[in-house]
Write a structure and sequence with these properties.
The structure is a homodimer of 441-residue chains. Chain A has a 6-stranded mixed sheet, with helices on both faces. A 5-stranded antiparallel sheet of chain A has the order 7-8-11-10-9. Chain A has a 5-stranded antiparallel sheet with strand order 12-16-19-20-21, with no helix packed on it. Chain A folds into 3 domains: 204 residues, Rossmann fold (3-Layer(aba) Sandwich), CATH 3.40.50.620; 90 residues, Uridine Diphospho-n-acetylenolpyruvylglucosamine Reductase, domain 3; 122 residues, 3-Layer(bba) Sandwich (Phenylalanyl-tRNA Synthetase, Chain B, domain 3). Chain A starts with a helix and ends with a strand. Chain A has 441 residues and is of the alpha+beta class. Chain A is built from 14 helices and 22 strands. The relative contact order of chain A is 0.08. At the A-B interface, helix 6, helix 8, helix 9 and helix 11 of A face helix 6, helix 8, helix 9 and helix 11 of B.
Chain lengths: 441, 441
């Protein structure tokens, strides 16, 4: 196996031969064999071990084992202890996800601080096959069937073409010791079931299963490249504006496609949508129709679909006392509001207003507009419902919901960034002018 | 199940309710249940049974069973006997392939002659899953993972969403009888192994496996639509000429793509190529480089890749006696040659020549040119190697190999369709003129 590993590195991962790398080491057979192979090839590497403290003494014994291994191999070793359960609880992750995040975050940190070029993990061909089968069994799309990438940014998996059998044989031949992982998570249970009960039958049917599987993965990855290139090109045509909050998709671009659903799925899948027929139906729906995922929503607005995040109520209103209102700035989702005294009115605009300070009742309030709000549009006689104003301005549902107002004793002073109120305007009787300016963050 | 089947037809296959259909019936549980269901729903159907004569008395007993079933259901039945083994031998097919071709050819014939709208087959969800796993185990690409289509031209598979379990339960509840298929082909062995040993474990891991699988298939079929649309659009740009024999692909179009191999695979896979790296390397290869599949070849020629069939030597030469040469036509792969007397020379062209008949030595021969051939190009002094002439004409390797010559006593009279020979031209001493014209078929 050493020779095959060497020529694999030379042909597919030659950059590893001239890099400084970290090997992510659990103490299990795969990562230990990887460390031994790298030692044999004189790679410039250190070990990094995560103690997730999930299996009491066993976790600690693993740590000791890794420290001993580092000494045997005469390489540097880093060990980090994590309170995985606390992290999982705090961030609402599964234990599996928590361990994964902690591990990769720490590796990334190590790599950056200590100038390592790559992080090596010991995933092998059977892992890859098992992952494929797990994803398939649960239901998936092309992306769940393209396998673990050999290189993904600075994470490299040099054992990926090798089978578990080859790794075990190498460990045996070279009398390499390792630690068995006794954990029995549901994920591992699943993996073991596939490993011991399904894969042997498939290998019985096709003794070259791992080779065939590699070919399948190669084809599927090529296909995924076609899909990505194609979806990118549709996105380039369809996405007309993309600000921090919203993405606008031109409906007409999807109507030109033979299967709009396929592209909508590729573009929106990552935002957690599941009701794809509803998403497709939005293309022909009336303005205002929307579809939700757990984190996002998609709204039809005239010739557009608008994707935005469901806001986690950072829409709390803000009150400002008279003392606070001078020379202050207030952050709201729309941007930053600057309050200031002014000598005279100049450069009035949608985003800058001047009001007669003596007409204000403090504290002022900044809040999202609500049904029933009425104001006196600047320059007009009489009043108007805010809802009517927003409709006449042809704002989308999302834009409407993001509309803030500045009020004084619940009278609207300004529809922020849009229209000032007639009642508070500066006149020739005005003694103190307050300037309010909205700047985007 | 009857209710589910009914609403499935109403929602997904409503056209079947108003069509005249054939049910392909083996006598096995799936097709027999399909026939019973169609009877219950009053569909306008007939049965069609193929007796492949592969299992002696058993095949005949199946036939009798189907005839009885038709009587019970009070529907029309067609039975056809095939000598499957002879067909397989004659056409070099596996027994499986032979049976498949015979079956579908006969169904197509029946449908056309007797004005049936659709042919129904009884494939179900478990068949679909097993096919996926068979393809996966052997190694495949996206197309091997998108499942059996519910409707493919006039073949419709109305049981596709239903599981084997549902079908068995329906047969039991309704005391439906069927014939067990005792055949044990390797294909069936494989299927049984997956059915009895692999699928139960996957269903144990995910009890909703068939539903998840259907979602996976839906996603993969959408993805396949993206790929097809994208590959079509590349093909439209890249294919510059497409005659009966050759397809010319513009190399530059592939160079614009991020992953040319992926597109070449999609475009050329059906022609049996396997060495995809060699195919990709052709893009940068010298003119004349080629890659072969068992049936086709791909040649680099200047800015093009030219795909053509490897000809099954229909390149046998033809000889023509003096008697045969007047008023005759001769078919060669290039087209049809018309030989005729003429009073005078008119409309000379690449495809029409006039020669002095008295200068010819019979029999004439029509054959592919060969190395060493020399001719006297019309209008030139002296002679020229045919190989040099073809090179100077900048013909591709494929065009060169398709070049035919008409010879007299092994002297070239005409490089067919390209250039006549000076020695045989009509002069003022000519008494008999022979006109030869090449017409494309």
């Amino acid at each position: 196996m050493l020779e095959n590993f060497k020529s694999h590195l030379q042909q597919k991962l030659p950059f590893l031969l001239e890099s400084k790398v970290i090997i992510a080491i659990s103490g299990g057979i795969d990562s230990v064999v990887l460390a031994h192979l790298c030692k044999k090839l004189n790679l410039d590497f250190s070990l990094a071990h995560c103690n997730f403290n999930l299996r009491d003494e066993e976790s600690d014994a693993d740590e000791v084992f890794v420290l001993d291994l580092a000494e045997d191999l005469d390489v540097e070793v880093f060990v980090q202890n994590f309170d995985t359960e606390a992290y999982a609880k705090d961030f609402k992750r599964s234990i599996q996800m928590a361990a994964r995040e902690l591990r990769y975050n720490w590796f990334a940190e190590l790599a950056e601080q200590l100038k390592f070029d790559y992080i090596l993990t010991a995933h092998h061909a059977d892992d890859n096959l098992e992952t494929f089968l797990i994803n398939f069994t649960r239901g998936t799309g092309l992306n769940g069937l393209t396998g673990i990438p050999m290189k993904n940014e600075n994470i490299v998996r040099p054992l990926l073409p090798f089978s578990r059998q080859e790794i075990e044989a190498y460990a045996k031949e070279n009398q390499i010791k390792w630690r068995e992982d006794s954990s029995n998570s549901s994920r591992k249970y699943l993996r073991n079931k596939l490993r011991h009960e399904v894969v042997p039958i498939l290998k019985d049917i096709n003794p070259q299963l791992l080779d065939s599987f590699q070919n399948t993965l190669d084809h599927l990855n090529d296909t995924a490249d076609i899909v990505a290139e194609s979806v990118d090109s549709v996105a380039n045509e369809a996405i007309v504006s993309l600000d921090e909050d919203d993405v606008f998709f031109k409906v007409s671009e999807f109507k030109n496609l033979k299967n709009p659903k396929a592209y909508l799925f590729e573009l929106l899948n990552e935002f957690g949508f599941t009701e794809w027929n509803d998403v497709v139906n939005l293309l022909d729906a009336q303005s205002g129709k929307q579809v939700f995922s757990s984190t996002h929503r998609l709204v039809k607005h005239r010739d557009y679909l608008i994707l935005s995040e469901k806001k986690s109520k950072t829409t709390k209103s803000v009150t400002l006392s008279e003392a606070e209102v001078i020379n202050s700035k207030v952050k709201i989702p729309l941007g930053i509001l600057f309050f200031d005294e002014a000598d005279a009115v100049k450069e009035k605009s949608n985003t800058t207003i001047y009001v007669d300070k003596d007409k204000l009742n403090f504290p002022l309030e900044l809040r999202i507009w609500k049904e029933g709000d009425v104001f006196h549009p600047l320059g007009m006689n009489g009043k108007k419902k805010v809802s009517k104003y927003l409709k006449d301005e042809k704002l989308s549902l999302i834009e409407k919901e993001k509309t803030w107002v500045l009020t004084s004793n619940n009278d609207i002073v300004w529809i922020v960034g849009k229209r000032a109120d007639e009642r508070f305007k500066v006149t020739n009787k005005t003694e103190q002018i307050l300037k309010v300016e909205l700047a985007n963050p």
